[in-house]
Design goal:
It is built from four helices and no strands. The protein is mainly α. Helix 2 packs antiparallel against helix 4. The protein is globular and about 45 Å long. The termini are close together.
């Protein structure tokens, strides 16, 4: 399916795709959080140039806040992970994922983002964040177990 550019209320396919992507983000982020919480966040990710599970969690938490800022204001915020209290990385990550999902859901797939509505649309950002989440879910899983496959049929 092509990127959602113009939402046609008579065509439910983009809406179903949008909702499936939101579900995918939520599921992948829950898997990432569970692995970071239970399997140790210091596990190295061999194919990610020295990153650990906690490094990927911090990166993705930053990305969630960055994308939420763009969808909300049209401008990327300055995100600083050095403000995450020790031992609270997973909770910080989960809060950022929840805020992103809420923002995307509330904005809707065909609606422009930011004050002018000209910075793509929420459908674009949902698809981009779903790809970000599934790739990093694969990374984090691979640090502790054979990763689940990436569902390629979801991206058609």
């Amino acid at each position: 399916m092509k990127a959602i550019r113009h939402y046609d209320p008579g065509d439910a396919r983009p809406l179903f795709f949008f909702l499936a992507l939101l579900d995918s983000i939520a599921t992948d982020c829950a898997t990432i959080a569970a692995i970071a919480r239970t399997d140790g966040d210091s596990a190295p990710i061999a194919h990610c140039g020295g990153w650990t599970v906690s490094g990927v969690v911090a990166h993705l938490g930053d990305v969630h806040r960055w994308a939420t800022g763009i969808v909300t204001t049209g401008h990327p915020p300055e995100v600083r992970i050095d403000h995450v209290p020790d031992g609270e990385l997973v909770a910080w990550f989960e809060a950022g994922a929840a805020a992103l999902l809420r923002t995307l859901r509330d904005t809707g797939p065909g609606n422009g983002v930011g004050p002018s509505g000209s910075h793509r649309n929420a459908g674009f950002w949902t698809r981009r964040q779903a790809l970000e989440a599934v790739v990093h879910r694969f990374d984090v899983e691979s640090a502790v177990r054979p990763p689940s496959p990436i569902p390629f049929e979801s991206w058609q």
